[in-house]
Design brief:
9 strands; single chain; 0% helix; Immunoglobulin-like
């Protein structure tokens, strides 16, 4: 997915299961920690990056797990220089 630099990015990870899965995010294999520009909502089901930067480009993974099993989905984000749209959204596939 392409996103214009300095625009927000919203990525959804729809994980469903019994018991409710725990969700962790990583970028290029490194766990993501919240910061001023980057935050999680809805028990980490939504990743928001405010004002994307070139360094935000990479492979993002959502890993969901519970006592029954686990699943991982990923999306490649490319941040480019020119401003194009207001907000970019990405939906990772559902995890059951």
């Amino acid at each position: 997915m392409n996103v214009a630099r300095a625009k927000p990015l919203v990525v959804h990870c729809e994980a469903v299961g019994k018991p409710d899965p725990e969700i962790d995010w990583s970028k290029d294999g490194v766990p993501i920690e919240p910061s001023k520009r980057l935050l999680f909502q809805s028990n980490k089901r939504i990743l928001i990056i405010h004002k994307t930067e070139k360094d935000d480009s990479g492979q993002y993974r959502c890993h969901a797990r519970n006592s029954v099993g686990n699943a991982t989905v990923s999306i490649t984000i490319r941040v480019f220089g020119k401003l194009v749209s207001n907000t970019s959204f990405a939906y990772c596939s559902r995890i059951y």
